[in-house]
Amino acid sequence: MGKIADMYYTVDPWLVSEKGFEKSRSEVSESIFSLANEYMGVRGYFEEGYSGETLIGSYFNGVYENSPQENHVKYKGIVGRSHFMVNAVDWLYTRIWCGNTSLDLANAEIDNFERHLDLRTGILIRSFHWKPNKETKVKIIFKRMLNMEEVTQGYQNISIESLEGDADLTILMGIDFNTIHKGEGRNFWKEQVKNSTHSSASVTAETITTKQKLYAGFSITASKSLNTQIVERDKFIGLKFNVKLKKEEVFEVERMATMIVNKTGIDQENLNQIGSQALRSQLSSNIVFERNRKYWENVWNLEDIQIEGDMRNQQGIRYCIFQLHQTYYGQNPNHNIGAKGLTGEAYGGLAFWDTETCCLPFYLLTNLSAAKNLLEFRYYTLPQAKERAKQLDCEGACYPIATLNGHEACDLWQHASLQFQPSTGVAYGIWHYVNVSHDKEFLYSHGIEILIEVSRFLVSRGAWSTNGEFGFFGVMGPDEFQMMVNHNAYTNYMAKRTLEYTLEVLEEIKTIDRISFQSTLAKCGLIEKEYQNWQECAEKMVVLKDENGLIEQHDGFFKLPELDIHSIPVDEFPLYDHWSYDRIYRNNMIKQPDVLMFLFLYNQSFGIAEKQINYEFYEPKTIHESSLSPSIHSILASELGKEQEAYQFFEFATRMDLDNFNRNTREGLHTTSIASAWMNIVYGFGGVRTDGKELILSPTIPEKWKSYTFKITYQKRLIQVKVDRMTVKISLLKGDILKVQIYNELTEITNIALVIDR
User: Fold this and answer.
1) For each successive 10 residues of the chain (758 residues), what is the average pLDDT?
2) Which residues, 6 or more positions from 391, have their beta carbon under 8 angstroms from its beta carbon?
3) Taking a C-beta distance cutoff of 8 angstroms, is the pair 500, 428 a contact?
4) Which of 51, 143, 217, 350 is exposed most, by the fewest CB atoms within 10 A?
5) What is the pLDDT of residue 653?
6) In 513-623, where does DSSP find H-type helix?
7) Who's near 746: CB < 8 A, 6+ residues apart?
8) Neighbouring-strand partners of residue 727
9) Are the C-beta atoms of 488 and 476 separated by less than 8 Å?
10) How many CB atoms within 10 Å of residue 609?
11) What pLDDT is attached to residue 3?
12) Which of the residues 345, 480, 552, 625 is marked catalytic?
């Protein structure tokens, strides 16, 4: 795969630690040490300022700006202006001077540098010794945390101890909206109002074109009385004060910050009043620390994965679970999961089709209400999807390939106009959610409305060939190295299943409640003739398959020139940066799973022989230029008994970012890969399947491991699975008796642990 681990952080089961500061890794560490609580996120940048390579990144879920540059390609259906998650306020802004020397780790004389992220509490701590002059040496400790429950609140604590000599310090703590969005190279905020007292300050600002407002304020308390002066400049306000320390004296100052986003048009005066009141009533850091500790304790009690005999992957999977919770836990149905979460600006902070296919499974088996909210986001943005379908000369709803607000943000026509994975992915997500939750109330209301509009789009975008077959022409499937192809297997198969499911649900509603059925038809303008046509389209959908079960990725794929992917030099990856764009499309090299992707999603619909012949044909052609690709291959390899191959693919999963496998962690974390790492253990080695009538378990264990344990919540039952070299032990920790299929045998699990020989 041409990917090698860049091992740097100390391996520990509960901590991610950096000991000693390497300037060349500053931006990678900023991503790794990011904090978030779904509402907001902040990269692990140095709050005291840093003149080296850095991205001072602060982001709020759903706060975006429109691209200043218009796409001047005027063909219909091509996006004219993109949008992106905007870099927001630096609410941690701090500057420290000792005499005339400013603290800047790019050139300061320091030692004993350490940084620790505690996965049990969500606390980030950084400490070092600074020698600003020959006579003085101080120890500085920075702590920060975000409130996981009252999500508008953030905290910073600074402790300074004089180790040698007396220290004459000046400290400036502020709120700064002068942040530069790195991708665009400019600032996107306009100041509205400032306020300050001797111990607090705030700025309310507004994005330039989208007019979203953000109140950011803070108050400070210190271990000694302070004589503060107010420092103001455009988009900035701060409190400056002096501190004199004798040798061995310690000074502490704490910042409590409140950030309130408004997207609905509250005027600046009211927003400022709301923010000021929230700041005055903010909880102390001690109370929040204890609540955060309990929050994470509950997370680990319900979701921890324990690996015996592999400390690196133990740390890795806990880091993945930690970051998934930081990115999203369902607090707001208007939020979605961006490709980089809230940790960086790559991909514009946009959400892609992998939300429903790769991220949703984690929430289905850990936090069902969060899974539902991910789908509610698609319901609330259904009007935008319907608008997008019209732009493509189609009917119904076409969900965007990349978005924050429901509108298509991708201005690359070959992706935005040819890929329908988001639409069929949303339909699959609804089916998968209902299969696990049995939430028919959602299905018969919001769910069926989405399904109808997606089905309507698919039929209007598809076409009948001259031989009477239905399918899709001029498309791009998940394998983005094949463009403008006909009858892409993934596109056709997922469309077929979408149409069939929509018709099935309509028939259910009709049988249960004819009045509700008629109401649904009326609301969507659906007539019998139209949905009867969907049945014919589904029945005649083309899926090219030979007599052995080998599925052709698209019409003509088997005739493409063969390329030995192992002959490509490592220094030519990623290919987008080193090959001319058209060169990528001239062979049968695959970017990421396409046929194998739907064999995973609808796993129980295919036999083991069919999975094997397709895996063995397509895996050697795949170069895994997508971070989700290794995990999907690992899951299928594990199912097929290819244990060594499964583990080799797995090695990239849990530590994709910790070991910087793709050499681009500095841009932000790979959220989909993080979710796939969880699937890799639970769906892969654990053999869990949630696309059948019952929960399925077929655990295996990697040769290097002594044992592993995972927990899932399924239909309100908390289930623990422990696998060792000899046995599988399944325990029902909470809930009633449940029927499950274990190694193809249907059995019941109770509160008495079930032990099965492997």
Assistant:
1) 76 97 96 98 98 97 93 86 96 97 97 98 98 97 98 98 97 98 94 96 96 97 96 98 97 98 84 95 96 98 97 97 97 93 95 95 97 98 98 98 96 94 98 98 98 98 96 98 97 98 98 96 96 97 96 98 91 88 95 98 97 98 91 97 95 89 89 94 98 96 97 96 97 95 94 88
2) 76, 77, 408
3) no
4) 51
5) 85
6) 514-524, 528-539, 575-578, 595-601, 608-618
7) 694, 739, 740
8) 757
9) yes
10) 10
11) 64
12) 480
Tokens 């080799």 belong to which residue? 648
Report d(CA 31, CA 53) in Å as an integer.
13
- Rounded CA gap, 430 and 450, in Å? 9
CA 111 to chain centre: 35
User: What is the C-alpha separation between 665 and 659, in angstroms, rounded?
Assistant: 9
> 730 forms bridges with which residues in the sheet?
721, 754
> Is 480 an active-site residue?
yes
Structural element, H or E, at residue 634 = helix 629-639
DSSP state of 141: E
506, two tokens: 């309509």
CA 380/CA 397 separation, integer angstroms: 12
Burial of 109 (0-12, 13-18, 19+ CB in 10 A): exposed
Phi, psi for residue 421 in degrees, rounded to 5: -60, -35
- Residues 338, 351: Cα–Cα separation, whole Å: 4
Residue 317: HSE in the Cβ half-sphere, 13 Å Cα cutoff = 25
Residue 490 CB partners (closer than 8 Å, separation 6+): 421, 477, 478, 479, 553, 594, 595, 597, 598
Distance in angstroms (rounded) separating the CA atoms of residues 288 and 121: 10
pLDDT at 452: 98
Tokens of 300: 């680990």
Q: Which helix (H) or strand (E) holds 749?
A: strand 745-749
Segment holding 501, helix H or strand E: helix 489-512
The token pair at 626 is: 């997508």
Q: HEC states along 290-303? A: HHHHHHHHHHHHHH
Provide the β-strand partners of residue 254: 157, 221
DSSP state for residue 446 in the 8-state scheme: I
Contact predicate 142/157, CB 8 Å: yes
Cα(507)–Cα(497) distance, rounded to whole angstroms?
A: 15
CA distances from 69 to 73, 79, 445 (A): 12, 12, 39
Q: Are 81 and 67 in contact (CB under 8 A)?
A: yes
DSSP states along 224-274: S----EEEEETTEEEEEEEEEE-TT-EEEEEEEEEEEEE-S---HHHHHHH
Task: Say whether 181 sits in a helix, a strand or coil.
Answer: strand
Q: CB-side exposure of 269: number of CA atoms within 13 Å?
A: 0
Closest CA to 446 of 374, 513, 548, 532: 374
DSSP 666-699: GG---HHHHHHHHHIIIIIIT--B-SSSSEEE--
Burial group, residue 304, by CB count within 10 angstroms (0-12, 13-18, 19+): middle
CB within 8 A of 134, min separation 6: which ones? none
Please count the residues of the chain.
758
Phi (first) and psi of residue 62, to 5 degrees: 85, -5
| Residue pointed to by tokens 């053999």 | 687
Q: In terms of Cα–Cα distance, which of 48, 46, 47, 45 is closest to 170?
A: 48
* pLDDT at site 22: 94
d(CA 589, CA 562): 8
Q: String of b and e for 21-31 (b: at least 16 CB within 10 Å)?
A: beeebbbbbbb
Please report where in the chains the tokens 């060594």 appear, as a residue: 644
- The span from the CA of 512 to the CA of 465, in Å, is 37
Q: Residue 684: which of 732, 623, 742, 643 has the closest Cα?
A: 643
Each residue of 384-400: b (16+ CB within 10 Å) or e?
bbbebbebbebbbbbbb
CA neighbor of 44 nearest in space, from 61, 62, 27: 27
> Is residue 292 a contact partner of residue 122, using CB atoms and an 8 Å limit?
yes
